[in-house]
Amino acid sequence: MLGTNIISTGLIGWKAWEHRKTVQILSDKGSGAGRVERVLALLIESGAVYCLLWAVYLLTAFKVLPGAGSLIVNTVMIYVSSIYPTLITILVGLQRSQCERYATISRDMEFVQAHDERVATIQR
Asked: What's the rounded Cα separation, in Å, for the pair 111 and 55?
């Protein structure tokens, strides 16, 4: 499990780095972090923390870190490993809703011209 998480986090980091390079080349503006970059950064950071938790779990499982802490780590990992996907989904969703909350529309309202000149009326 730890190996899969390390590889996945590394691949997401590589993709984020490529995306950032592409955006800097194609964009005339500064390198402000967009929504995609924030989501990728969130995935990288949470993946690194999750890998660290798995490394500590493996150290306690192989009795490298013995003591009362191993019981706590074993108990915590049961809950963390089950809630992790849901937690990441919620964090990404919260970030998206906060971005949309502060977004403003910079276009004027435009009306579409009707193709038919006839106007429907309701008779009573």
From this structure: 59
Q: Alpha-carbon distance 60 to 41, whole Å?
A: 29
- Tens of pLDDT, residue by residue over 93-121, are 887 544 444 544 445 555 556 555 555 55
Taking a C-beta distance cutoff of 8 angstroms, is the pair 44, 16 a contact?
Answer: yes
User: Are 20 and 30 spatial neighbours (Cβ–Cβ below 8 Å)?
Assistant: no
Q: How far is CA 98 from CA 37, 93, 95, in A?
A: 15, 9, 5
Residue labelled with tokens 């009573």: 124
Instruction: Give me 67's structure tokens.
Output: 């003591």
Q: What is the pTM of this model?
A: 0.63
The reported pLDDT for the residue numbered 11 is: 92
d(CA 19, CA 40): 10
